[in-house]
Design a protein that fits this description.
With 68 residues, the chain is mainly α. The chain contains two helices and no strands. The mean pLDDT is 87.
């Protein structure tokens, strides 16, 4: 019985971690799509979009590493 409880606890942690990673991925994907639409008519300011995305990727990567 103890092994089943440990397994259930481990599965809950895995499910929560997977959910957070999927949510983080969706957030990054949404930000990327939104920024592409926002800066599509501003070719001279594409570097701002790229800098914002670098910051978003770093933030998401740090959160993923902390989670793991």
């Amino acid at each position: 019985m103890l092994d089943q409880e440990n397994l259930l606890g481990d599965l809950m942690v895995f499910g929560l971690s997977t959910g957070v990673l999927v949510g983080l991925s969706l957030l990054v994907f949404g930000m990327h799509r939104r920024l592409l639409a926002l800066y599509s008519d501003k070719p001279g300011q594409q570097h701002y979009r790229q800098l914002i995305m670098v910051c978003v990727y770093l933030f998401a990567g740090i959160l993923a590493i902390i989670l793991m």
